[in-house]
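ingest -> validate -> predict -> emit
validate: passed (alphabet ok, no gaps, 198 aa)
predict: started
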Amino acid sequence: MIFNNRNLFEYLGYKNTDFKNQSKIIEHIGELMNQKEFIALQTHNEKVFQSKKNKTFDFEFRLKNKHNEWQWFLRKDLVFKRDLEGTPSEILVTISDISKVKEAEEKRQIAKIEAEKSAKIKAEFLSNMSHEIRTPMNAIIGLSEIILNEKLEEDVEDNMNSILQSAQNLLVIINDILDLSKLEAGKMKIESIPFNLT
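emit:
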């Protein structure tokens, strides 16, 4: 039964002379693997041999190349012949280099973490900024209302009403920004307020 050939080792940059026992070159795979992954590989092999269905089994693992760098591989096992007792007698094993795929996944994961960190910073900034702006806006609105309670000339009263209305409109925008930052931070709370349905 053929499990592998020497091409894999050549692909990793090794020569046949790099391994002492030429007749058991397949056993050297364990020397190039992480110990936990090697144990997982043995478990994978057992699962393939114990399977009753002719289906493909996938296994991802790393091997250390001649330059002492890890390379990722995807191994696919397919049982295509069994003996009379149903035990696998011939298995087709293919191994593909997926290092570039893994590298892209790692970069994507790093980019995702950075994006989430950036979004969190933005949400915190918006929240802080909204609070800082709302404080003086409340003062402007409050003082405008106090001044409007006094006797004013018509044009002054019109100007104060414009200031008050503009300040109230701006406060609505600020509250919307604050709600948006809460929503992004997952801190939005739903309020239960009575209202007239009609």
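The chain has two domains: 7-97, 110-184.
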